[in-house]
Amino acid sequence: MDSNDFNHYLHAFSDWISDYVKAVGHYPVGSLLRPGDISKQLPDSPPERGEPMDAIFRDFLEVILPGITHWQHPSFFAYFPASRSEPSILAEMLTAALGAQCMLWYTSPAAEELEDRMMAWIRDMIGLPPDFTGVIQDTASTATLVSLLTAREKASGLAINQSGFSGKEKFRIYTSVQAHSSVDKAIRITGIGHDNLVKIPVDHDFAMDVAALGAAIREDLGKGFHPLAVVATFGTTGSTAIDPLAEIGRIAGQYGLWYHVDAAYAGAALLLPEYRFLARGMEMADTIVFNPHKWLFTNFDCSVYLVKDPVSLVNTFNIMPEYLKTPEDRLVNNYRDWGIQLGRRFRALKLWFVIRYYGREGLQKMLREHIGHARWLRDEILRHEDFELLAPVLFGLVCFRFKPSGISGEQELNRINQKLLHSLNDGGKIFMTHTVLDGKYTLRLVGGNTAVTRQSVEAAWEEITRQAAIVYKQFDSL
Question: First and final CA of the chain: distance in angstroms?
Fold first, then answer.
């Protein structure tokens, strides 16, 4: 593409991006297409000759855009947010233009040194002690895998990396039944095996039962197993429950377990001093993961992985072929040795833009607003005779269900709530997801992107109650 064409389309695309950011709320929040609707519009074979950019962009608008779920929509309340902000978008544009491969200090010194400083900023902003350092991973799933691989190699003296499993290790990993599925996946990838993942029951608030954890460890020791690690959660995916971090830390220390804390979503709340008491004991962890791309307005992907023992981390992943050796290796952090990937994007740039643009106070203001929206909805649910709150509202997530007076059986309640969720999402006005808590089909509403306002939450509640009345009438007539 010649420079004139590039300049033309760069400005055209920038204008479209600006319009999209302002008008995202006018799109249906969830795609209304059916499976196969996109693929049948795509040619079976690639073009032999290049096509004009006008045609490509037209197909983006007419073929691709209708199949997009708009995660930045003010009525997107599903999963956890994958947030973004204008300063983060601008930084991503610069990152794409630079096209830097940031695997070594030598390949882009600014990328390594900025990342190191951003990890210190984040550590200090969430109130952790200075013995933590860190690196940006792509996702929390990768960070959890990296943590458990490090635990495995530290326990084996790097023998498994060198020679593989001997069959005598008999490692066991502990986490709660409410922990994220990334723990299950990591156990498989590490070779420890899913049968050696011990799921600990939870209490009435869905937090790990510490007494049960201690009992499970003692039982495994009696059977000749090697308790290796425990994964606690600060803000579970299902309900944002908080495991008792200090008590788990004491047990980990007592039995010599590696201790990892998953704070992927709720870690952002620790920017608020009034919430730090909830994380008492987090400083006892060996590793912590927190995703600015969830609730700190930084475009996906950007996962902060904080570690106390970078030497064990680097020893686990360091491989030094001749073509990667540089004169500065002993003086710098070569982040390719701090995780799985060799190739690395310049993720620190967007985090730098976001923190500098909003400042600590601006970020805190948005977080408090989102928590306020959730508390408003909590109070509305508690006041409504046909709805039931199913978990404490700690951050921006509200877990509830429709419970009309005419239906009492749990199976029927599960069915009507499933029907309600499908009706809401099919309507295109709001988008939500569910979980199951204590056997109850649970509706989850969480707002955390920059477009969410009190008005959008109020409109969501109005739509939920409206659809609930329709679903109940249909359900009652069956």
Answer: 62
CB 84 within 8 A of CB 298: yes
One domain for residues 330 and 183: yes
Give the domain extent around 74.
Answer: 1-30+69-84+360-478
Tokens 């979503």 belong to residue: 265
* Residue 233 is assigned to a structural domain of this protein: yes
Q: Is 368 exposed, middle or buried (0-12, 13-18, 19+ CB in 10 A)?
A: middle
CA distance 177 to 243: 11
The three-state secondary structure class of 442 is strand
Residue predicted with more confidence, 188 or 326: 188
- Measure the CA–CA gap between 409 and 370, rounded to whole angstroms: 34
Q: How much is the pLDDT for 199?
A: 97
Is residue 445 within 8 Å of residue 432, measured between CB atoms? yes
In 277-409, alpha helices (H)? 292-295, 310-317, 348-383
In a domain, 462, yes or no: yes
Beta-carbon count within 10 A of 405 CB: 7
194 inside domain: yes
Identify the bridge partners of residue 229 per DSSP, sorted by sequence position: 173, 258
Listing from the earlier edge strand, what are the strands of the sheet with 387-389? 387-389, 397-402, 440-446, 433-437
**Per-residue pLDDT tens over the stretch 141-186:** 999 999 999 999 999 999 999 999 998 899 999 999 999 999 999 9
Rounded Cα gap, residues 240 and 178, in angstroms: 10
Using alpha carbons, list the distances in angstroms from residue 370 to 11, 379, 383, 445, 471.
34, 15, 20, 12, 29
Q: Are residues 371 and 326 in the same domain?
A: no
CATH number reported for the structural domain that contains residue 411 in this entry: 3.90.1150.170
Model pLDDT, residue 5: 92
* Mean pLDDT, residues 1-7: 91
User: What's the domain count of the chain?
Assistant: 2
- CA dist., res. 147 & res. 229, Å (int): 9
pLDDT in tens, 314-359: 999 988 776 667 767 776 788 889 999 988 999 999 999 999 999 9
Query: Does 309 share its domain with 383?
Result: no
For residues 274 and 264, the answer to whether their CB atoms sit within 8 Å is no
Same domain, 305 and 201: yes
Determine the Cα–Cα distance for residues 312 and 254; give it in Å rounded to an integer.
21
Q: If you average pLDDT over residues 392-421, what whole number do you get?
A: 94
| The domain boundary residue, chosen from 293, 312, 345 | 345
* CA-to-CA separations, 3 to 8, 9, 10, 155, 457, in angstroms, rounded: 9, 10, 10, 56, 45
Place of tokens 């600060």: 234
User: What amino acid occupies position 162?
Assistant: Q
The yes-or-no verdict on residue 109 having pLDDT over 90 is: no
What is the domain-level CATH number for residue 248?
3.40.640.10
